[in-house]
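Title: Comparing notes on inverse folding

I've been comparing how different people in this forum approach sequence design from structure. To keep things fair, I'm posting one structure and asking everyone to reply with a full sequence. Here's the target:
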């Protein structure tokens, strides 16, 4: 039942840390936006099976239950899964029921779920849970793991914590340091999880399997979980955002630990610090199914707060409407992952925009993304869900297509002034290079593409294989292929400027309309 007030009675100093995740389990079910992995299926030791119904939220706590059923023992586990970060402080308030044959762990596990690294903040052993171990798995020492034993009563409420920094792990019990190590320290994104465990014959280290004295119902109780990011890795705050559907947008309740909520559906849009390919972003994502409940995310601050992050990730929203012109001379890296359509504008610094395109089979022509950058030296990348790993942690649902090749997606890119680069790895569309010497990159040898100077002064590039749509280029001087760089045969300036449209007003443009006149500016 826990303290029920989400208070840490033995807090650690917070200097040097930023709170970026919190869950007090005060709803009536586990928040799948925060905990996307709830285990189901067989266990590694074969002594029990995982069932999602064995993870229960009630009375202000989450409980992982070991249950003796007519078909055998069952247990539960839940985890942040991909919803983790690189380095941080993790705190959890928990207790373990006594009982022969049961163990479990509060642990950090790789976000890619490939194993190898593992940090066990506590593993209770034996029936009375008076012997408890910290264990660290991974490279950096002889044998498969290091483990250290501590004696205290884990059936009582305790606050467990670990500071995970490059090359160092520091463990705490009730606010007091109890161990630190520089061996086997993970250097990849990790996430927190709670693992139920029923011992098998041979699990003597854990205290052996259940016997006649074992209760038929046994639990791990978790009052709350918090995660912090080191200040030197903290990307900054997420600019004010609105979520929902066109005409029915609502703000998030808190910048990090809260969420936008739709009626009884719970928290379906979340925000936190996320690490993607080793880069830390201020991220927000639709935690419901793609194109369901929260298809739109929009943000257009009138002024740029210095506290705002410069690395921003918007994921699993079908429509992203982002006007960051107010950033001015602040360089931004903006990722729209899994977006079907939208508008993105940046300021006048050297900005980077990545569109990981997605489309529903029933979407028709509504697949257009407009990107407008400013006067700096900018980079725009157009790719697709089937050609990028950025979307993999976020996208899911009946309409989600992880193998989407981008062929139905259309880009409208205005690179502004400056020496800019656009990488076109999916879809088709139009690029206005603007002033300066600009380069467009195509993935493949030059022989794969037909390059044509059109009578209106633009350059057209077509993929002979049909894997991408055609690209019409204005004001672009160089074309870069995997085996050659050539001058664009048509370098005329665009007859009119590409601009972003209001929310919901992105122009419809079917990718099948490949004639030069159809690539609307």
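Reply #1:
Here's my take.
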């Amino acid at each position: 039942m826990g303290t029920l007030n989400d208070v840490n009675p033995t807090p650690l100093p917070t200097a040097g840390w930023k709170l970026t995740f919190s869950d007090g389990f005060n709803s009536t079910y586990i928040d799948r936006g925060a905990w996307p992995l709830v285990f189901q299926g067989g266990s590694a030791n074969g002594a029990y099976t995982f069932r999602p119904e064995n993870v229960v939220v009630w009375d202000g706590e989450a409980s992982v239950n070991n249950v003796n059923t007519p078909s055998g023992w069952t247990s539960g586990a839940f985890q942040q899964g991909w919803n983790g970060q690189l380095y941080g402080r993790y705190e959890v308030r928990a207790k373990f029921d006594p009982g022969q044959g049961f163990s479990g762990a509060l642990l950090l596990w790789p976000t890619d779920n490939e194993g190898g690294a593992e940090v066990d903040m506590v593993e209770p052993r034996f029936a009375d849970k008076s012997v408890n171990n910290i264990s660290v798995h991974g490279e950096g020492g002889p044998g498969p793991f290091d483990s250290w034993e501590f004696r205290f009563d884990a059936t009582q409420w305790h606050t467990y914590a670990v500071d995970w920094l490059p090359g160092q792990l520091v463990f705490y019990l009730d606010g007091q340091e109890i161990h630190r190590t520089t061996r086997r320290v993970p250097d990849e994104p990790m996430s927190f999880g709670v693992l139920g465990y029923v011992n098998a014959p041979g699990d003597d280290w854990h205290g052996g399997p259940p016997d006649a004295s074992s209760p038929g119902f046994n639990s791990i109780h978790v009052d709350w979980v918090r995660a912090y990011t080191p200040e030197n890795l903290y990307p900054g705050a997420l600019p004010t955002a609105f979520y929902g559907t066109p005409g029915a947008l609502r703000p998030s309740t808190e910048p990090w630990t809260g969420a936008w909520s739709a009626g009884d559906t719970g928290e379906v849009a979340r925000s936190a610090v996320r690490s993607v390919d080793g880069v830390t972003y201020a991220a927000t994502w639709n935690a419901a199914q793609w194109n369901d409940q929260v298809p739109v995310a929009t943000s257009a601050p009138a002024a740029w707060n210095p506290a705002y992050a410069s690395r921003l990730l918007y994921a699993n929203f079908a429509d992203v409407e982002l006007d960051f012109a107010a950033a001015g001379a602040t360089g931004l890296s903006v990722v729209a992952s899994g977006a079907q359509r939208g508008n993105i504008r940046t300021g006048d610094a050297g900005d980077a925009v990545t569109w990981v395109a997605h489309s529903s089979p029933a979407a028709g022509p509504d697949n257009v993304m407009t990107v407008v950058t400013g006067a700096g030296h900018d980079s725009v990348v157009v790719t697709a869900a089937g050609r990028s790993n950025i979307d993999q942690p976020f996208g899911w649902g009946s309409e989600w297509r992880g193998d989407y090749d981008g062929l139905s997606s259309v880009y409208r890119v205005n690179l502004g002034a400056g020496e800019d680069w656009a990488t076109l790895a999916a879809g088709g569309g139009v690029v206005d290079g603007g002033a300066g010497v600009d380069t467009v990159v195509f993935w493949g040898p030059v022989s794969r593409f037909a390059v044509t100077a059109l009578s209106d002064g633009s350059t057209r590039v077509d993929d002979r294989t049909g894997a991408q749509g055609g690209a019409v280029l204005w004001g672009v001087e160089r074309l870069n292929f995997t085996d050659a760089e050539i001058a664009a045969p048509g370098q005329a300036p665009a007859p009119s400027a590409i601009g972003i449209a209001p929310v919901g007003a992105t122009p419809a443009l079917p990718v099948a309309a490949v004639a030069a006149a159809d690539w609307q500016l």
